[in-house]
Amino acid sequence: MLDDKLKALWTRISPPQKAAFFGCLLSGYLVHLYVFTNIIPNSDGLSRIFDPQQMTVSGRWFLHFASYFNGFTQMPAVIGLFSVLFLALAAALAVSLLGIRSRALSALSGALMAAFPAVGYTFLYLFTASAYCFAIFLAVLSVSLARRGRWHWLAGCLLLACSMGTYQAYVTVAIGLSLLVIFRETLDPSASFSATLRLGVRLMLFLAAGAVLYYGILLVFLQVKDLELLSYLGMDAASSGYPFSRLPGLLLDTYKQVAAFFFLPGSANTFTSGWMAVLDLAALALGGGCFLLCMGQEGLWRARWRPLGGLAMLIAGIGGRGRGERYVNYLAYIGANREVDLARMAAAFDVSVRKLCKDLRHMLAKGILPTGYLDMAEGKLYLTEMGYRAPEPEEEADPQEKAEQDAQREDAILREIRQVNDEIPDERMSAQIDLIERLTAQIFNCVRQHPEKLSQIRQFLNYYLPTTIKLMEQYVTLQNQNVKTENITEGMQKIEDLLDKVIVAFQRQLDALFESDVVDITADIRVMEQMMASEGLTNKKDFA
């Protein structure tokens, strides 16, 4: 009986939907297989090892529930499976929603959806990937339901709110898909003006209602949990209401940024070259040509609302990128640094120092960078607790005194690791910590002998090492509990497993410090070999 139901369900799925589903599934695994079969740690991932994704302070009140698929852990194979399945379901819904009948085009649409660069970036944060892909699916499903009207419309609003509650940026998926639905309607010869208008109003109200519902639920979560939004990227401003008076200016700025992103190399997109700008213009011309050709073949231009409506949808669909993407890249570059060289940062993003400073001033003014000061005389950005005031000049420290202070600080860290190790009777765990201590000591010793390499271990000092020590201390706390519950045992095991990865990371950090030395050694050997051979001191065949 179950087989009959499955067969009936299979026959109800259209061939284009099947093509999109399997095209996305296959492409997803081919493109992202390496990520699904390896653990690629990053700072966010390490800090989320025991985090149940309670991200309400970031406005993502539904992320906790959406992450149940992978149990708040980093299991690449499982997370990859769920992620690709959700994307494949979203692709199948999208081709149906847009009325794509070609199997080949549907399969290509699904493949492109899985291979889209934004999806690749998502898999860099694997611990939330399945939840974020689920949010994409919810966004597509919400538009599909909202289009039907009546009670389906209300369900669509709720699903859109849940999608935004997982990751706010995916509201753009719903917006873009809604615009495409209306755009397609204008190209349908059988569609009337009144029906198309009703559809547009219905979808517009759906987007607005979904956003309002998301915001209302967020305020409830913040109130019940007694939380405040983070200041990151200006999120905390959402709790005090949206500045609607600034909306026209923000929309205009969005379109300016989009034009710069696609057609002005170096202004907003570090990857756009002159050739890419040409290709963007060619793609825009091709899209416009196809639109005009369709209008001409079907005689749709006779109904004035169709070309005007299509043009309006085209213009509306262009908007979508602003400063946000650049700001995220800036924040990633700054990291935990308290002092940033402006010229070097500008070169990293292929923008002028003037343009960079303009962006940084805007980030400071909006609270995206909560504290900081641009010192144009020194060409540096200082990020201090002093706010907008320049840091007081510090007296030149005696090199010998500074070296002694650094040595004392390093010895204190090593003693702390050793003290934690002394409190752990487990031989395997103790051996892991002992190796971590030796690797840390070697890293400190290398930097002590070569101070110019200090910048290479800044992330190691500011995040990885203190986080590792914190986790080891948490292990001691769990170990000392009289009753070992299931959660305590699981937590201890996770820390033990993580330390294996930490050891590998520390070994690579140490190896990286000697990379330049090895290059110099190789170069010196090659030069010496060549000189000895040229002067007849050795046979050339000795170096063959």
Helix/strand class: mainly alpha
Q: Total helix count? A: 22
Cα-to-Cα separation, first versus last residue: 74 Å
Order of helices and strands: HHHHHHHHHHHHHHHEHHEEHHHHH
Gyration radius, rounded? 28 Å
Description of the structure:
- The N and C termini lie far apart (74 Å).
- The chain folds into three domains: 2-242, no CATH class; 324-381, Arc Repressor Mutant, subunit A; 399-513.
- It is built from 22 helices and three strands.
- Mean pLDDT is 75; it is low at 317-322 and 385-394.
- 26% of the residues are buried.
- A three-stranded antiparallel sheet has the order 1-3-2.
- The protein has 544 residues and is mainly alpha-helical.
- The protein has helices at 2-12, 15-36, 43-47, 63-66, 76-97, 103-115, 117-122, 129-148, 150-166, 171-186, 193-225, 247-263, 274-298, 305-318, 324-334, 342-348, 353-365, 399-422, 427-449, 458-479, 486-513, 515-534; strands at residues 339-341, 373-375, 380-382.
Could you give a quick summary of the protein structure above?
The protein is mostly helical. It has helices spanning 2-12, 15-36, 43-47, 63-66, 76-97, 103-115, 117-122, 129-148, 150-166, 171-186, 193-225, 247-263, 274-298, 305-318, 324-334, 342-348, 353-365, 399-422, 427-449, 458-479, 486-513, 515-534, and strands at residues 339-341, 373-375, 380-382.
